[in-house]
Design goal:
Blueprint (H helix, E strand, L loop, with lengths): L1 E6 L31 E4 L8 E5 L19 H4 L5 E8 L2 E2 L6 E6 L4 E6 L12 H9 L2 H8 L12 H29 L7 H27 L2 H4 L1 H20 L8 H28 L7 H34 L7 H23 L6 E3 H23 L8 H8 L3 H7 L13 E4 L4 H4 L3 H10 L10 E8 L3 E9 L5 H21 L7 H29 L3 E6 L12
Helix pairs in contact: 4-7, 4-9, 4-10, 5-8, 7-8, 7-10, 8-9, 9-10, 11-16, 12-17, 16-17
InterPro entries: RUS_fam, UVB_sens_RUS_dom
Family: Belongs to the RUS1 family.
Organism: Mortierella polycephala
């Protein structure tokens, strides 16, 4: 971004938008200048010749590229009288001081351009020197924050990025303090003096890289892609696991004979926490990127974490030194000051993680988010149908209904539960791609399974299969769905919606008399299939328009449990 001060002598009262394309100095300017936006303001009328200022402005402004506004038709001719440009550049979101400005002059007679520094344009007498001004600029809050924020902040990230980064910084500072305190307690349990600290560090390193990393590998193999589908949940669990590991280290002096076992368990927990935290960080940073700048956001996140770690470690060292002073008092138990200091930082570490996670909006579809959206749609469609049957309102188009009923990712994120266990809004459960063998060997259930894979009740053939596991008299316990190996993302969304619609219909029976077994099951599945055929195509369009990533699905366990029927 550039700020130009044009020195000219136009007639008084001229106010125009000037672009470099009509300037006689156009050939002297860099090529990039021609593609930028500028706003020209005429200086107030003075006895001296007025100065016209050109400043950059955003696309959201009412001004637009190539649009000229003038109160005088001679303004274009006045542009030919321009002789010099005073240039200042915007660096890291801050205008550079005047001593870093330049002047660009053109001699119309010789058709030559000169480019020189405005070193003489210094601050008024009595102010700081050029060197002091430069130091102040480099150490200014804007310049300092620019080191830790993505390039182009805040335009290149979502509005939620700044509050997330603040709480994340506090979270990392508190975590570093608890790590220092727990490590001091671990060293105390070993009975080490100041001269034996390197030995303790080496032992702790061996345990962490051995048993600790092995535990992290096993943990990652079980969690798999759930890091991507539920980043907030596993990030919160990682924080709790880390603090639990720190508590074990803190209490190690109570059982000094079991030091190796306790330290090993603690390091396994820490490695699991580090792995979960690093695995979810990329997915969470992705939600803040607006200009395909995930790498920049991730890099600055690492810088913020490092800075917070340094601050927390320094604070922890100071606190540890104070605790050592209290430990010398024979009337005070050694663990008491450690625990009293550790507890508030540990609680604040978990709380700040919880607060920062509320600013993360995940737009991919997993089972909880998809159930939230589909339940809201199914419930709304039923209510509007009842209102229409009563004559209170006219029948609206399905697309218009979905526009009102489909929530945005931000609305779902605000209601998303990631601390406690997830509870489905549907009373009838769902089971996705279970082992077929558990149904094929249960006598009459095998007959129902045969109807399922022949798609009894389906209006047309689909690359998925739905079965109702239960009866009308005793209540359906759950709806089971399998997907064919040829199923695409659209088919998976329709199959899951079909299963949710089936669950909603089963909940609405409320003990009404129905035909039993296969006929009853086929009737329910058929009714739900007709609705899914009508709704799902428009539903996907509306969800895409509201920011949902319908091509990023975590509704199944990949392709591992798909079936093929020949």
């Amino acid at each position: 971004m550039l700020q130009f001060l044009w020195s000219s002598r136009p007639p008084p009262g001229i106010s125009s938008l000037y672009t470099p394309s009509v300037s006689p100095l156009r050939s002297c300017l860099p090529a990039q200048i021609g593609s930028r936006y500028y706003r020209i303001r005429s200086a107030p009328k003075q006895s001296a010749p007025p100065t016209t200022c050109i400043k950059p402005f955003s696309e959201s402004s009412a001004w637009r590229r190539g649009r000229f506004l003038s109160t005088d038709s001679s303004s274009a001719n006045n542009a030919a009288t321009q002789k010099s440009l005073n240039i200042r550049q915007l660096k890291s979101g801050t205008w550079l001081p005047k001593w870093q400005a330049f002047t660009l002059s053109r001699d119309d007679r010789s058709s030559t351009c000169t480019f020189q520094s405005l070193a003489g344009d210094k601050a008024p007498k009595g102010n700081a020197s050029d060197e002091e001004l430069g130091a102040r600029h480099l150490l200014s809050p804007q310049t300092t924050l620019a080191v830790f924020l993505p390039k182009g902040f805040p335009e290149t990230v979502t509005p939620n990025y700044w509050p997330f980064a603040k709480w994340q910084f506090i979270h990392n500072v508190a975590g570093s303090v608890t790590a220092v305190i727990s490590t001091q307690s671990l060293l105390f349990a070993m009975g080490l003096g100041a001269g034996s600290v390197p030995m303790a560090a080496a032992l702790n390193w061996i345990i962490k890289d051995g048993l600790g990393q092995l535990g992290g590998v096993v943990y990652a193999s079980f969690v798999s892609d759930k890091f991507d589908s539920e980043p907030k949940r596993f990030r919160f669990q990682a924080t709790v696991a880390m603090q639990g590991a720190n508590v074990l280290e803190l209490l190690t002096p109570l059982w000094p004979g079991s030091f190796l076992i306790i330290a090993s368990i603690s390091n396994i927990g820490k490695n699991m926490a580090w792995l979960a935290s690093s695995a979810t960080r990329a997915q969470m940073n992705k939600t803040f990127a607006l200009r395909d700048n995930l790498g920049d956001i991730t890099g600055k996140s690492g810088s913020q974490t490092t800075a917070a770690g340094l601050v927390g470690t320094g604070l922890g060292v100071v606190i540890a030194a104070l605790m050592s002073h209290f430990a010398e008092d024979p009337t005070v138990l050694p663990l008491v000051p450690m625990c009293l200091t550790f507890l508030p930082f540990s609680i604040f570490n978990i709380y700040s993680n919880y607060r920062s996670s509320h600013y993360v909006t995940t737009s991919s579809l997993n089972v909880p988010r998809a159930e939230t959206v589909f339940y809201n749609v199914l419930k709304g469609l039923v209510q509007e149908k009842e209102e229409c049957s009563k004559g209170n309102q006219t029948v609206a188009d399905v697309a218009q209904q979905l526009e009102r009923l489909v929530p945005t990712p931000i609305e779902v994120a605000h209601a998303e539960v990631f601390v406690s266990a997830y509870r489905s809004p549907f009373r009838v459960g769902i089971e996705i791609e279970p082992a077929i063998s558990q149904y094929a060997c249960q006598g009459k259930r095998a007959e129902i399974l045969d109807y399922t894979f022949r798609q009894a009740g389906f209006v047309r053939k689909e690359p998925y299969y739905i079965m109702i596991n239960g009866s009308a008299q005793h209540g359906a316990s759950k709806v089971v769905v399998w997907f064919d190996k040829e199923a695409k993302d659209v088919n998976i969304i329709q199959g899951f919606y079909h299963a949710c619609a089936t669950r909603a219909i089963l909940e609405n029976y409320n003990g009404q008399p129905v035909v039993e077994n296969e006929t009853w099951s086929s009737t329910v599945i058929n009714k739900a299939h007709e609705q899914s055929i009508e709704v799902v195509p428009r539903l996907i369009e509306v969800m895409n328009g509201k920011g949902w990533e319908t091509d990023s699905l975590f509704l199944t366990d990949g392709d591992h449990d798909r079936i093929q029927i020949e």
